[in-house]
Design goal:
Radius of gyration: 27 Å
Structural class: mainly alpha
Order of helices and strands: HH
Shape: elongated
Number of helices: 2
Largest sheet: none
Helix content: over 70%
Strand content: under 5%
Distance between the termini: 77 Å
Number of domains: 1
């Protein structure tokens, strides 16, 4: 049991040390890059929302039209 705890502690410590080493290698974006990509994401979200709203409206009207034609 004591050996399992020791192995767990050693493996956890190794993981944290490797994580720290890897995080030093990360290239972080600057503020301008973050702002521009955020703007692209926000624009994309609204564009897709508008697209799906149009598709949803057209499909709803189409299905209602087909159902009303066959139920008369």
């Amino acid at each position: 049991m004591a050996e399992e705890k020791k192995n767990w502690w050693v493996s956890t410590n190794d993981y944290i040390n490797e994580l720290k080493l890897e995080m030093r290698r990360v290239t972080w974006p600057n503020r301008k890059q973050v702002e521009s990509t955020t703007a692209v994401v926000i624009f994309s979200v609204f564009a897709f929302a508008a697209y799906f709203e149009v598709v949803d409206t057209l499909l709803t009207k189409g299905i209602h039209g087909i159902l009303s034609y066959f139920t008369k």
